[in-house]
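Re: weekly structure request thread

Next one in the queue (675 aa):
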Amino acid sequence: MSFDGQKFRMPLRMPKDIGGLDHTDFVEERIVERAFWGLMRRSKIMRKVLPAAGMLYLGYLRTPDLSEVGRELWLTNSDCRTHAFVAGTTGSGKTETLLGMVDNAMTWCSAVLYGDGKASLALPFSIWGLARRHGQEDNFQLLNFLTGGIDPFEVERLQKELIVKNIVMLWQSNSFNPFGSSPFDFLLQLLVSMLVKAEGNGAEWRDKAINMIDAVLRILAFKRAQGELEISVQVIRDALALPNLVKFYLEGQQGLLPELAYLPIKAYFETGLPGFVPALAHDPTQWNEEVYNQHGYLTGQFTRVLSLLTDQYGYIFQDKYPEIDVNDTLMNNRILVVLIPSLSKSPEEAAAVGKLYASAIRLSMGMNLGYQLEGKKAEVLEKRGSVGRYPKLLINDELAYWFAVGMAVMFAQARELNCMMVAAVQDVQGLKRGEAKDESASLIANTKVKWCLALEDADDTFELIRKSGGQGYYSVLAGYNESSGMLLSSYEAQGAANIQEKDRVTLKELKKLQQGEGLVIFKDSVVPAASYYIPNEFKQSEVLAPRINRLLQIERPKFTRLAAAGAKPSANNARHASETVARLLASDRRPSYPDLDDPILAAVSQVAGRLSASTDLAVTAIERGIVLYEAALQAMREAQRNGTSPFFHRPVEPESPELMAAVDYNKLDEYPEED
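Done, posted below.
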């Protein structure tokens, strides 16, 4: 019996691997039919059932019905990109539920960006373990804002002591410089997003400060394009000093800056900075003290932000060439975990860090939207990096602690960019406490999947889930009839029943849920669910130690530097893949690397072939390694007895190395591929 003939339906979607049609997933089309030999036409709505396409495994169904319990809960790609809102109190299993989603994304080899406002070290440890199991530990990246209360001066002292002993003390984080490669308008948005919202006179000073920093960033972006500098937080901080800004102004007067970069700084000094006299720009000793005061008021808007990034988190933002690029993470399907210290930092500083991370993602999405309209569909729509078979997973855990302005827009537009957004909170009130409280309703409205775990909040959070679940019609017994006997009284149910409209989700039901249990509300369905749970022994290794992938600081290559060094393309580079292939196709020459006579490799290959052909499934990987090691050891000892010296192999020269017969052309597949 095929799956097409099954009578049952899955609670949500049918998984893709079983094939067949999914009767819960369909589209309705209007078709026009001709009747009475074409004299009349009539239209009707046809339901087109789509193939099974479930790809995100959420867990299984909880129900007392033994014939239905355990049915799997799946969502399709389209369902995932309608985003999810996960609510659950402390101890409800929210983190384990989200880790189940992460494991799904790793099976797709898709990008995972996990921002955690709780900043628990168990999270990156578990995600690294899952990445290791999926062979993706090389894609693991960690942005760790936790310092553990360590004094940076004490760390500097220890680093100096250990470097003498050839021991390097590294910070437990990858580096991040969102200002390094972004255009100046994106740099402006990054800095502005971290400013505190102001009103009244403060808003006026804030607008003036934005105009000033806009002029600075334009000049820095121009100099970066000319190869004169690399933009970092420290470079921006140094450029804000008044003497440095005047130098930029003088360069513009000398024609060293283009108008796009010069006009904003010119407007700032000549019209936006009271007391500044352009004729005295060359002589700082004659500048009015009011000039310094006015400039100090404006730069003071960014002082706290730049100090936070440079002084407290300099180990993250000090590198010119960062290890983390959000756009690279999204487009090349890497794994990024961000720990935001909401406990050890003030709410304002935690929110500032969250704003920076959220803004980096938002601006990366904006870059991937594209701008080109003219061209074919393959050039305009299908060529974008956001197109793919599987969505990119962006989880925002404990979002209430770092909810930033602009995140609601991300939820609204992420679907087009092939991203699945997940917002996880303990209560809805937390979203309404920060600066972005006006966006909380919009964010929740843009999530079609509501997943509620155990809940204690009887106010806003429960009201949201109750309204999302809707109401249903239930049969309610009208009452009981009492029958009095000689000794005892009995009660019998009345034959009548009433139909009442009641809420499908009650607070009592949510409060009694165990860890990992919850309700999945999707469209008009309220499905009791048990989350996909991964035991600790499968995600937290007791043998392997996680390693942060640290990269070397390498400057961007420049053609001018190659020309100055007299570098020339090599004509005899036999290892260059394209040259080797061209030579083979043109002259039928044998590849440049020779065959090897290697008795050790031959012995190991022979034993490995026997092990692979064996039907004994009880042989473990450790036992297999021991057998291969012993085979190599015996072959090496045999080679030593035969008088072979290290490296125990020798090249085999062909009889005619210049030409290769046409019959030998099929042996090209036997050569290993070149790097």
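The chain has four domains: 3-54, 73-145+329-478+510-549, 177-322, 577-670. Residues 177-322 form one domain.
Next request, please.
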